[in-house]
Design goal:
8 strands
């Protein structure tokens, strides 16, 4: 058994996936658009004209899969109450990934040494997803 995050970007999923490809080397392994559904959803499911939006996608980042969708295409994604944590091997990679994820977003805790990590920081990316970037403390 395992848990996977499923993010609903409410109309910006493709843009988010392209951003994560650049920022954290995400690889899209599966993508299905609403128009690909052989049994079209009820009219109330998605607003008209959004058939090319993403119904379901899976992206791999390292050993982790993240699931994503445009959801109901409301334009109002609301990512609250959680953060995705990106654990990287060293401070140089932490800096590179942190800066890439922060582009167009907001740094909430600058990347810096802490009592539990040689490099830790927090940010909200341009899509509103909360991230923590950390280098594990050497054992």
């Amino acid at each position: 058994m395992h848990i996977q995050p499923y993010l609903f970007f409410e109309g910006r999923c493709e843009e988010a996936l392209d951003f994560y490809k650049q920022a954290i080397d995400a690889q899209v392994e599966f993508l299905m658009r609403y128009d690909d559904n052989p049994s079209p959803p009820q009219q109330s499911m998605i607003p008209s004209g959004n058939g090319r939006k993403i119904m379901h996608a899976e992206a791999r980042v390292g050993d982790t899969s993240i699931l994503a969708s445009d959801g109901m295409c409301t334009g109002n994604a609301d990512f609250q109450g959680f953060s995705l944590t990106l654990t990287v091997a060293n401070e140089a990679e932490a800096r590179r990934r942190f800066e890439a994820l922060a582009e167009g977003g907001k740094v909430t805790m600058p990347l810096a040494e802490s009592f539990f990590s040689p490099s830790f920081g927090m940010l909200v990316d341009r899509f509103g997803v909360n991230w923590m970037v950390i280098v594990p403390q050497p054992m």
